[in-house]
Specification:
Layout lengths: L1 H30 L4 H4 L19 H26 L23
Helix pairs in contact: 1-3
Length: about 110
């Protein structure tokens, strides 16, 4: 049972942290984009011409967000298998006292 609770907590933490990192990455991209040039004070002076050349590739950062969500999916899948080992998933043994068929033994 403890393993199941820990797995659910870790899965939730992966979801929250990856979502926060994805939002931060979006903010970084917008803060370093070409629109920042027009907002710089020296670029608004008459006769000064500012030009946006490029930004470093952020492909590896995008991949880190994708791997974060994939890791969260893996933890979620692991939570399913841990759930199947808990008492929530296994049938109750009290069914025989209520007229049910007893579980098979000696297989």
């Amino acid at each position: 049972m403890t393993d199941f609770v820990i797995t659910i907590v870790v899965t939730f933490l992966w979801l929250v942290s990856t979502s926060a990192w994805a939002k931060a990455l979006t903010d970084i991209k917008s803060a370093t984009g070409s629109s920042i040039v027009q907002e710089l004070k020296p670029c608004s002076i008459q006769g000064v011409m500012c030009q946006f050349v490029s930004v470093t590739s952020m492909g590896s950062l995008n991949v880190s967000v994708i791997f974060g969500f994939l890791n969260m999916i893996l933890w979620g899948g692991n939570a399913w298998f841990v759930y199947k080992e808990t008492s929530f998933h296994s049938p109750s043994n009290t069914s025989t006292s209520q007229g049910g068929i007893p579980p098979p033994t000696g297989i």
